[in-house]
Amino acid sequence: MIERAALDRGLVVASHGRHVMVETPEGRRLICHPRGKKSQAVVGDHVLWQGTHDEGTIEKVEERRNLFYRQDEIRTKSFAANLDLVLILIAADPEFSEVQLTRALIAAEAEGIAPLIALNKSDLVEPFERAWARLLPYQRMNYGVMPLCLRLSGDVDHEHLLRHLRGKRTLVLGPSGAGKSTLINLLVPGASAQTGEISRALNSGKHTTTSTTWYWVDAQRTTALIDSPGFQEFGLHHIEPARLASLMPDLRPHLGHCRFYNCTHLHEPGCAVLAAVGSGGDGAVHPNRHRIYGQLFAELSQPPRW
Q: Is the dihedral of CA 200, 205, 207, 209 positive or negative?
């Protein structure tokens, strides 16, 4: 039995397979391995570890505030733990998927993590206007929605974004072409070199990208960006179908006002959600949002295939 006093505390800043990179409070980084066959630690976890030569063994993962993850029919993919913000970066071009955006927002809502939607490429006037119009329902739901132009990387956009990120641990999500790499490199000079160093360390010289990587934006290590792939296929199978409407802010106010207590909000008479769809008044539900709800409800109601 290892004495607690013999263990050091650290922060998981990168992961690949069963190996993780842990950063000490002094800023030193070392590779750590899990105790046992399966690694439970994810980026953002606070862990207790014990040194073994120039590496370490994780003895305990401390309790998390939250865990942002997705789950399909086969496996669970954990992005990061102990987050303050999820920055969903989309672009005016290529056209973003509203279904994927909704999935990410629901996953954040389920864990009580604040989301921020950033729409990049504001310099593309007509595509940006169309994309911005599609986001108006989300602004009415009180989601934070901000314009960006990372291509020009102006100081105004840069500072405006940093005001939202300062002092927070932010997971950056975004589809291919939205500008995620540009954003990381803009806010974290040398990020590409840092990623290469981490990949080589965790993969014993192989140039394989780590699944999730933590970057400090400031020298004081108070503001962090966490880069993670996996936006294209965002399963929500960890969420019960009956809970889905409560995680959508435009549907939520109408819950509890339906004729039937077990209303699915899809076809039942006396459904308060259906009455609000396309109503045009305060508390209206946009038809496209209800269509997405129906699509997700059907997906989550499917029995397992195995």
A: negative
